Amino acid sequence: MSSLTMTYTRRNLAETIRTPTMFLTVALVPVGVMVFFVVPFIGQDPVAITSASATLVVFGVLMACVGHFSVAVAAQRESTWGHYLRTLPGGIAPQMFGHLLVGLAVVAAAIIPILLVTGLFTAASAPPPRVLLAAGALLVAVVTFTLLGLAMGYLMSMRVAAIANSIGFLPLAVAGGMFFDEAGTPQIIEQIAPFVPTRGATDLVLVALTGEPVGALSLVMLALWITIFAGLTVWGHRRDQVRRFS
Amino acid sequence: MTVIARVRDLTRRYRDTTALDGVSLDIPAGQVLGLLGPNGAGKSTLINVMTGLLRPDSGSVEVCGGDPRSESTRRVIGVTPQETGLPETWRVAELVDFVSAHFPDPVDRAELLDRFDLTSLADRQAGGLSGGQQRRVAVALAFAGRPRLVFLDEPTTGLDVDARRALWNGIRAFHADGGAVLLTSHYIEEVEALADRVVVMNHGRIIADGGVAEIRGRVRLKRVTLTDPVLPTLSGVASIERDADRTHLLTNDATALVRELVTSGASFTDIEIESASLEDAFLAITGDRRTS
């Protein structure tokens, strides 16, 4: 890794920590939900808590990736500082890698507390190879939500991105059926959930972790969503470059 | 004469306005060039094209022998960020280190801070600085990479006198070491103090280009200042400006004007005649003088 990439990573990380609103929200909300609403009720039911923890990890990834990348990109686009950076030598790659690495750090901040609570205070368990497989599936979730965050960053102003961040997660999670157990899921959610990207990501992680089969529809939709988010990101990026720099 | 930046027939349009209309310009190495022009004349667009932020619709730009977007060019030019956009949580020393990290042979941080009188601010966060301090930091950043050509877009607008002097000293030190500067300014006095050469733009074109004295002399204007005058209608006056009890008349022929004043029996209590300033010349060239 080039030293310039390290410079960008260090600076972005320092800035993320010095203005920690997003960072703290991402680090505290998912684990808070876990501690107050999940552990007390199903903490000692091995099967239920394993799925619930995995779901919350995906929720954490959603918040971290969308929160970080949408705001980082929107801020970069709107700021005169972002303009200035283009006049410096070194190319765009160190900046992009810097954002990516800091994004992963934010993801770690979101999911490590959940994993700790799960490991220390609940009856959740899974065999190590399954956990490894689930980690791989989680990587797909990271890619999905990173692309969503990037697309939002390119298509929204920073204000709108911030608003979308504060009100967008819950509907996405609820529509994807993240906060319901199988028996208690309302009919309407049952019907729309497979078409929502959060459901596909959750299902992928769950199937990797537990081996229980899930409907193929949500996974197909997930692949479709990844394509859509990637397309929007590329389109948004190009449009942005043309608008501002050509 | 080594040419460090070469611009040929540059044209750039925004929707319905033409910001640059066939601009050609050579900047020799080591020259401080002052770029003047009213708002909307195309100065900032020219700088944005020369620093690679905008593409021209037609024409060519070569800076330090390369395309402005090329890596080799970026290493040898210095650009100022807008001071209002400095990342608020970054300390001044961190900003300098960050920008320096992009260049192969940056100026030592202590030396750079000292040159722009910023040493005492090194540990302050950018967001906590006054506007003038931020501006000085922003300008200093343009010099961090030992550039051969620096672009300064209104570097001292809104600064107090001391801060302006500090900046001027930094720019002069750079110039003395052989650096070239492209400078725009609202303060014509600043261009007069720093520049070797003046280029005046209006409506996207270069309308005058020469040494400071040459531009000033291009318009053979004299400024005739009268105190408490009661004036008849005068011929041969380019403009009349009043401030408090003094009235400034700009004229191409001071002798004829004085004669006219005397023969017409105009009343005034004091008269001063001086060469027009660069500002007077600039306003006469761009036709922007407001007569009052």
How is this structure best described in words?
The complex is a heterodimer of chains A (246) and B (292). Chain A has 246 residues and is an all-alpha fold. Chain A contains 10 helices and no strands. Chain A is globular, with a radius of gyration of 19 Å. Chain B is of the alpha/beta class and 292 residues long. Chain B has helices at residues 43-50, 71-74, 92-100, 109-115, 131-142, 161-176, 188-194, 212-218, 254-263, 278-286, and strands at residues 3-14, 17-28, 32-36, 58-63, 77-79, 149-153, 180-184, 197-202, 205-211, 222-227, 239-243, 246-251, 270-275. In chain B, the strands form 3 sheets. Chain B has a 6-stranded mixed β-sheet, with helices on both faces. Chain B is globular. Chain B starts with a strand and ends in a 6-residue tail after the last helix. The chains are: A mainly alpha (246), B alpha/beta (292). At the A-B interface, helix 1 and helix 4 of A face helix 3 of B.
Concise summary:
The complex is a heterodimer of chains A (246) and B (292). Chain A is an all-alpha fold and 246 residues long.
Question: What attributes characterize this protein structure?
Answer:
heterodimer, A: 246 residues, mainly alpha, 10 helices, 82% helix, globular, B: 292 residues, alpha/beta, 6-stranded mixed sheet, 4-stranded antiparallel sheet, 13 strands, 30% helix
- Summed over residues and divided by their number, the pLDDT of chain A gives a mean of 91
Q: Structural class, judged by helices and strands of chain B?
A: alpha/beta
Quote the beta fraction of chain B.
Answer: 25-35%
**Segments of chain B where pLDDT lies below 50 for 5+ residues?**
none
Radius of gyration of chain B: 22 Å
Radius of gyration of chain A: 19 Å
Q: Which series of helices and strands of chain A comes N to C?
A: HHHHHHHHHH
The residue fraction in helices of chain B comes out at 25-40%
Strand order of the largest sheet of chain B: 5-6-7-3-8-9
Summarize the helix and strand pattern of chain B as letters: EEEHEHEHHHEHEHEEHEEEHEH
The percentage of residues in β strands of chain A lies in: under 5%
